[in-house]
Amino acid sequence: MRDFYCKIIRELEEEIGIRYIDNGDQISLCESMIEITLQKLTKLKRFINENEFKTIEDEIIFFKELKPKIVSKLIYYNAIYKIEMKKPHGGQRIIKKYLNNELAKLKRFFDNNLEFYKYYRTNSTYLDEKYFVRGKFDIKLSLDTFYFESDHSFSTSHDYKVAKVIANDLIEVYLEDQILNMNKFSRAKSKEIRSSLLKWTASKTSLIELIYALHAFKAFDDGSSEIKVIVRIFENTFGIDLGDFYHTYLELRNRKNNRTKFLDLLKDSLIKKMDEQEGK
User: Which Pfam families match (predicted)?
Assistant: First the structure.
């Protein structure tokens, strides 16, 4: 079952990488990705309906970790599609107000689901059988109306909420990037870039590869720091705009050869310098 799921998610992420490179129009990209994600979900649903979970633990893993990764992409692209379609015409002030209102919606969702966020973010498990096993819902656990209208053979009471949490993180990054891009030519931003003590002269892709490596190694705050926070710090430090770093990371993952090209070059350069200093 996990092999089938991995094949589905790999195909989906490859499509994301291809479409992102080939399509510069955000609305068209979202339309195509919504269609592709729905197709993958249909295949996954058919597979689940035809194959039983071997254990309760397998079912929990599927609905807590696996399915939400795909559904979150559907939520994300649908949300970005709506945001772009409804974006008002006008100056920066009007557009910034609109984008900040969208950020406020994410904050309200967080506030309204604070207890579940705590449960999910702390990797708690004591409610997993009620949250992530089909037919085991508890009406006292803040169920969304959406659940009662969903297909209970392919849904639990909280798997969609996990997907929503994941998607909202990505939507927040997208909105913040939009606002940042609008500000980057402002006087304050220009001053910040000019006053930067260090200038990053390698490629942006290389810096993103380095950031993700440090995050994977849990180099900051024992791994509790979110990737978007680390990216912002690096951007401010070097006066650089890394843009949609998440999709750049997907491109790195989808490389056919040498997915850690920059890291390998760093290692080789350091070893060469050490050897030279030792007279080898």
Answer: RteC (PF09357)
